[in-house]
């Protein structure tokens, strides 16, 4: 056989074919470009989004560490710092509490001392911003913005004198108050919403609090590898020899949570990659399908299958180079130019280079994936072109599968639309899967965005819009600060939906072995043990009004009851027949429910009279704010408590719900009613949200960009598929018109078909997307937010899909409206 | 009564720098119930004329009247409805819809008009065209001849007043061709249908009431002025 050098001829045919198919190549290039762009942008913006969400979580925690050792001894601190697995460990001690500023009561502002490691490596990274410096002199103090707000200081200045009444937390000095004039050395903003401050080492030492005092000192440990198991912690515990009540607080679910997160991320990546793959495959399939007759002609002229393959692959390479190049370029422009600019405009403190800091590997991965996908995607259509006999190819009508005999008596427009849909089952499945996956991905991304939305998190972590607290309670100057007049004004404020009133008093609960016996035994065996069980119980029996054994009795209204109740009868509760108890130091119910507890209220109308109420349910949460001793708090109806207390009943707090959550106008109006009263403090969701604004804007922009890009891809996928489908069938439409189907009827048939496509894709996307969203949501859900499907966003996408499907198809059809039937028939035949 | 007429009909195509005169000033009148055969060599303009008569192509100039209506004054959809109700068209390459079976292809124009097809009549046509056993077959399961007969059945099914057929016997053997033409004639007589048929076959052309011959886009025999051939 003679060796024939056909390289040049093949190359020439490929070039000629390529040049003459400009429109089809543009569609293919668009698919490759969009997939590359999608991968690159979604991954790089997704990473930035993830970083920002993690940063916000860190700021909501207020400190960046992995585990903590409580009440650490000096030698333990040194031992832990020397451990190989420990990156660094910072010491932090709660040493004092600010209870009053001038004449303003404060809601127990905690003052901490942090060593240099803790401050620099664990606190600063978790702050959104800080001004000034860590306190150096004994009288210097650094306060959180929420502490300053509680003190009524809106515009802090370095060096400000702050007379604060402090409670010393040193063991043996409980409730010992001293007034101290601090000097403000700085202030900071985190997202904890807590009022707190940092003091100097000299001040800390002067309080007498020791780092080993129960619940005051802790060593915050940052590990080199934050993924640890229970065995790692036990090993560490053994190495540092824990004593007494010491524990290492750790989250043993770290590895399983990490695995869940990785699984969810993998699922999302699989969706991203697979939808990209199907998009390219789909487009190439349609593109090569259109060329089958042409390739058949080439075959009749003697082109071999190998040569045909080369002709197709050459065109695929050219399209890939252009598509991938453009995709990377635009992605770089968006990721490194547009997004950082937008982010900087909402948060000027952000570093421009941090905002769009996408790794080069993201670009490489996207390029390699798009190239590989293009070649894998083109394999199947190439095979079709190769395997068609020249005669079959010439007769090819766009249906490669044999159509089976069908005993149907259709022939009406609706049945034709259905038949066109299932024209080629394999292609139909691929198209539908490609569309559905893109939509599913959008659904999953939306759920992730929703799970990380600060408003959602705050709605779940705060059960009110604003809480107003009576600061005089538990002081020597208890008074009714939340008056009936104030309540009425608040209730009448525009935008206020509900006002829940919580009243409270300190109650004396005599020793009752049958009710609280198990509870006290478990408490004294726990790390929070108040001391010696036998000795204390003896004291309790003799002196039940000793502060350790008192509790709070809280009166709640029916609205609050509805919020917290799970099983109690409302009428019985209202009538004072049954109550809740709330406790935090032990787990489980300790056999308390079903028993009746005796108590008396020293500040009631009849201070000595012993009351009795049945306990129906044990709560792990506490609806009020102030607590008293170790005995579980009793929660009764407001009506019942009012009966016991009469005029002496004090309102501890009110919880206000707005008609529209996070309403600035309503909040301003309420704060206006409270502003002149230093004995009230207000804490609101909106304030915390405002503190988080910068990060939240970043999260919204990044998350929104990812969602938008995926939405765009889904829509373009639909547009591409529909336009190819209509273009492929222009001859059939001409025949239909020839035998009497009006353009109006053709438009109706296409509209029906588009609606079928859109409807099926939406149904399938929901079938895939809902379980996937649920899985991903649960894997990322760190705040226990209940799953909810972001219906509005998805409905917008669904509506857009339906519109795009219908309008793309109709627009493509309208392009041929000026051509005669014969012109259209000839065009396809040529 | 004239049911189809053309006056000064011209259709020119531009191919590169050349102008091809597919039809060059055709004048023609066709009476109701007339069976007309158009003959001519390949490229003489037969199919172009038939397409113009069916309103499937736009003339460069001239006038086409169907049942007294100037089709240039009709909108595209009006023309389609006119074609659906008045004309049965048999394409040279059949143009059956690949996704519909024979029955569905046949009844489609009727259903498009919102009318329920007369199944007895459809079965009669199918029987006469020897397509009974292929009623539910798909076009890709039919031979060329069967497809041609199915296309003819589609044209006849709606009982149109005009049948335009582009080589309806081109793929048929002589026996089947005779049967098909016989059916067309019987149908034409019974329903007073006008039949315009393109053919290469002189013998088949002889079955028509009138024959016109085209050459280079002009009628050279049998046109409006040719009284002799009528």
Automatic annotation (TrEMBL), chain A:
Stretches that traverse the bilayer: 26-50, 262-284, 316-339, 359-377, 428-449, 699-719, 754-775, 795-813
Predominant subcellular localization, coarse grouping: membrane
Entry annotated with the keyword Membrane: yes
UniProt-listed InterPro entries: ABC3_permease_C, Macrolide_Exporter_MacB
Superkingdom per UniProt: Bacteria
Family (UniProt): Belongs to the ABC-4 integral membrane protein family.
Subcellular location: Cell membrane
Membrane topology, as annotated: Multi-pass membrane protein
Keywords of this entry: Cell membrane, Membrane, Transmembrane, Transmembrane helix
Segments forming domain ABC3 transporter permease C-terminal: 267-378, 705-813
GO cellular component: plasma membrane
Annotated GO MF terms: transmembrane transporter activity
Protein name in UniProt: Putative ABC transport system permease protein
UniProtKB/TrEMBL annotation, chain B:
Lineage, broadest ranks: Bacteria, Bacillati, Bacillota, Clostridia, Eubacteriales
Gene Ontology CC terms, in alphabetical order: membrane protein complex
Organism this protein belongs to: Lactonifactor longoviformis DSM 17459
PANTHER family: CELL DIVISION ATP-BINDING PROTEIN FTSE, LIPOPROTEIN-RELEASING SYSTEM ATP-BINDING PROTEIN LOLD
SUPFAM superfamilies: P-loop containing nucleoside triphosphate hydrolases
The protein's name: Putative ABC transport system ATP-binding protein
Similarity remark: Belongs to the ABC transporter superfamily.
Domain of life: Bacteria
CDD domains for this protein: ABC_MJ0796_LolCDE_FtsE (cd03255)
Domain ABC transporter: 4-229
Alphabetized InterPro entries for the sequence: AAA+_ATPase, ABC_transporter-like_ATP-bd, ABC_transporter-like_CS, MacB-like_ATP-bd, P-loop_NTPase
GO molecular function, one term: ATP hydrolysis activity
Keywords: ATP-binding, Nucleotide-binding, Transport
